[in-house]
Design goal:
Layout lengths: L3 H45 L2 E8 L5 E10 L4 E10 L5 E9 L11 E3 L2 E8 L2 E8 L5 E6 L8 H6 L11 E8 L2 E10 L4 E11 L6 E6 L3 E2 L6 H4 L2
Antiparallel strand pairs: 1-2, 2-3, 3-4, 5-6, 6-7, 7-8, 9-10, 10-11, 11-12, 11-13
Amino acid sequence: MVSFVGIKIIYRVQKIRFLKTLSIFLTLVVISILVIIICIPWILNSAFGPTSRTVNLKLNNGAVLICKETYNADIHSISYDVDFKLLNGIKDTIEMGNTSYSNQNWEKNLELKIVGDWYVLPVTSYGNSKLLLAKCYGHESKDTTLSPQDLRDNSLWTAIHSEIPDWAWPGTTEIDSIKDNRFFVKYEYRIGDPFIFYLETIELEMDNKTGILKTKKIFDRKENASSHNPTKKNQ
């Protein structure tokens, strides 16, 4: 039979083991809590920003496009705000302007062009195409956003169409191609009640000296059969 002294010894050994296990567990809990507290600002900053990075893109003509990105986010949206600077072959730094993207891999589609006296960088901004322009020699720069809402002030366009794009849906634009100083831009907008969505290509010509865009030709528009068109959903 196990003596009373033996039972006490076994009890004390089990108690010491329990206390050691409890101490280790509590230590791990405290360390975990401290790590979480320390990491919360980093986690929030990584998730919501602002965070920054710089992307340097080497161009075919020996120039370097310096792109400084600032990432911001909230519950509803994500934004990559990018500031562009061009370091040309003669080591001059040219301010190209800025824009905002909603996707992370924005740098994959960048292509710098020279049109007349201007560097031209086509970018996107909230669903619309945007042209960042900077003089090849000098410090003049400007930008032009191509928006369907501007069609209501286009005399050539209003001479063809009696209705103007609906203001409640901003529409989208996309540069389809660039040939010399001519830009072929796809406009998507909606008009009417019930709404009808249209796709329309417009040819814009850029003045080589001033950088001003003028409408040269408006192609026939086509009704867009995309999923957001309620008239197509019901057919």
